[in-house]
Amino acid sequence: MNISIHASFLPHNDPEASLAFYRDLLGFEVRNDVGYGGMRWITVGPKGQPAVSIVLAPPAAYPGITDEERRTIAEMMAKGTYAAILLATPDLEGTFAKLQASDTEIVQEPTDQPYGVRDCAVRDPAGSLIRIQQQG
């Protein structure tokens, strides 16, 4: 069996703020930007890795979600407990410095973790936890 990860989904509640974070700050390229019913789905990904994408999606646009579930999702996003992703970079310190110089919410400065990696953590504009590891 040959299976790979093609795309992961993260929520967004402000498409322009998400573009500013993922495209302008992290340097991802926009692969798709689709509007429907007043909502937007934006696909971004790292340059040079066309097979790997993140779909930034309206969090409560899925069929069958109740109003109570929408409220719960909004509450979890506000607390930063709804979604997370792990990224990697060969220049953790430089990446962190760029994030710190912006209005990005810093969760953890670069730290040597007891499980053997050096990483930092920030929140994207929707509150998703973004951990970034030193690569290599």
Q: Tally the beta strands.
A: 8
Largest β sheet strand count, sense and barrel closure: 4 strands, mixed
Q: Output the CATH class name.
A: Alpha Beta
State the helical fraction.
25-40%
Query: CATH superfamily membership, which one?
Result: 2,3-Dihydroxybiphenyl 1,2-Dioxygenase, domain 1
Q: Order the strands across the largest sheet as they lie in space.
A: 1-4-3-2
Tell me the span between the first and last alpha carbons.
28 Å
CATH topological fold name: 2,3-Dihydroxybiphenyl 1,2-Dioxygenase, domain 1
Domain count, please report it: 1
Q: State the CATH architecture.
A: Roll
What is the tally of helical segments?
Answer: 3
What structural class do the secondary elements suggest?
alpha/beta
Task: Provide the β-strand percentage band.
Answer: 35-45%
Radius of gyration, in angstroms, nearest whole number: 15 Å
Could you describe the 3D structure shown?
Helix content is 25%, strand content 38%. It has a single domain (7-134), classed as 2,3-Dihydroxybiphenyl 1,2-Dioxygenase, domain 1, CATH 3.10.180.10. The chain is built from 3 helices and 8 strands, in the order βαβββαβαβββ. The protein is globular and about 40 Å long. Strands 1-4-3-2 form a 4-stranded mixed sheet, covered by helices on one side. The protein has a 4-stranded mixed sheet with strand order 5-8-7-6, with helices on one face. The two termini are 28 Å apart. 21% of the residues are buried. With 136 residues, it is an alpha/beta fold. Strand 7 and strand 8 (129-134) form a beta hairpin. The protein has helices at 15-25, 67-79, 92-101, and strands spanning 7-11, 29-36, 39-45, 53-57, 84-89, 105-112, 118-123, 129-134.
